[in-house]
């Protein structure tokens, strides 16, 4: 997955101040994507269509002051954005008001030293990154350990969490990607609107049922389906399913699950992988008759009577849900 650069928006009604900010942070152009806006109403409109990680704004502006502008932005933006307010007034009351009303990340007085503003922006980006990596340590650890590919997004499909399996699916399928804004984007034209609507509904309506969206691209070797479902807190979970990707449990897992000997576990796994009794005998270096005797013991220990039932039993154990670290 390509690296997503942080996006910073600077808002100030003074053109000279914006020019100064451009000069000060021109050395950061390789690390950040930056936008500059002199009108707060236009800045609000810009945020309706684009995501910014950090918004740096003047407090005293016409039409909307910084606190009012941030309030408008927060009403339709996700909670990932951090806000930094600048003011020429060293007014403690304004600072408290800004923090209480908008949850502003930092309040800095003008003139503000460039190194102080840079430090505030970097701290804000660090806070955002920390939340993305640890949206709930126990939940994150559980998702990371799962073999199924899972992404958690907000109502605008902005990625909040992506486990390793999901990242691997995106590397092998052209139908889905994370764009430069950190949005889970669909490349399949016929499915794009369906997917976006499923995510929006799952985020807004926690009682809605799961929706299934095909994301297969003609150039993909494997089919890909997304299952979109609500998880609460204005979030949706997207599970990616690829037919045939689930492997049978390991030999060690079958020994633990069913009390099989190692040879019996090898035979059971070979059959669950689509092999025959003959190929299982070859794997274990035993005669065909001996392999059939082992198979009867496997039936007794697992409680099944036919090979098809054995295959179904093995492939529906919870072991494939656990992500392999081999």
From TrEMBL:
- Keyword Magnesium annotated: no
Q: Cite the SUPFAM superfamilies for this sequence.
A: C-terminal effector domain of the bipartite response regulators, CheY-like
Identify the keywords attached in UniProt to this record, alphabetized: DNA-binding, Phosphoprotein
Give the source's domain of life in one word.
Bacteria
* GO biological process, alphabetically ordered: phosphorelay signal transduction system; regulation of DNA-templated transcription
Q: Which GO terms describe its molecular function?
A: DNA binding
Q: Which Pfam families match?
A: Response_reg
Q: Which residues carry this modification: 4-aspartylphosphate?
A: 58
For whether the record's keyword set contains DNA-binding, the answer is yes
Q: What name does UniProt use for this protein? A: Response regulator
The taxonomy runs: Bacteria, Pseudomonadati, Pseudomonadota, Alphaproteobacteria, Hyphomicrobiales
């Amino acid at each position: 997955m390509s690296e997503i650069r942080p996006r910073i928006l600077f808002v100030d009604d003074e053109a000279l101040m914006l020019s100064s900010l451009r000069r000060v942070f021109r050395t950061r152009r390789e690390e950040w994507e930056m936008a500059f806006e002199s009108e707060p109403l236009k800045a609000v409109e810009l945020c309706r269509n684009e995501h910014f990680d950090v918004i740096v704004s003047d407090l005293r502006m016409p039409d909307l002051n910084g606190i009012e502008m941030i309030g408008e932005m927060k009403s339709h933006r996700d909670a990932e954005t951090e806000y930094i307010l600048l003011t020429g007034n060293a007014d403690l009351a304004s600072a408290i008001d800004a923090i209480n009303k908008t949850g502003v990340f930092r309040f800095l007085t003008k003139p503000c030293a460039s190194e102080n503003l840079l430090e505030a922006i970097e701290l804000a980006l660090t806070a955002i990154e920390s939340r993305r990596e640890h949206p709930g340590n126990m939940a994150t650890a559980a998702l990371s350990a799962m073999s199924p590919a899972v992404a958690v997004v907000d109502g605008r499909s902005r990625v909040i969490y992506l486990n390793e399996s999901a990242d691997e699916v995106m590397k092998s399928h052209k139908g889905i990607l994370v764009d430069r804004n950190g949005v889970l984007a669909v490349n399949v034209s016929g499915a794009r609107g369906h997917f976006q609507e499923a995510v929006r509904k799952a985020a807004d309506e926690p009682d809605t049922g799961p929706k299934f969206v095909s994301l297969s691209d003609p150039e993909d070797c494997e089919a890909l389906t997304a299952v979109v479902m609500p998880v609460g807190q204005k979030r949706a979970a997207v599970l990616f399913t690829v037919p045939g990707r689930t492997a049978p449990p390991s030999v060690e897992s079958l020994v633990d699950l069913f009390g099989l000997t190692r040879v019996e576990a090898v035979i059971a796994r070979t059959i669950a992988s689509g092999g025959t009794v003959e190929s299982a005998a070859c794997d274990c270096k035993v005669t065909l008759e001996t392999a059939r005797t082992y198979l009867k013991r496997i039936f007794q220990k697992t409680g099944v009577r036919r090979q098809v039932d054995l295959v179904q039993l093995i492939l529906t154990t919870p072991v494939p849900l656990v992500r392999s670290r081999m």
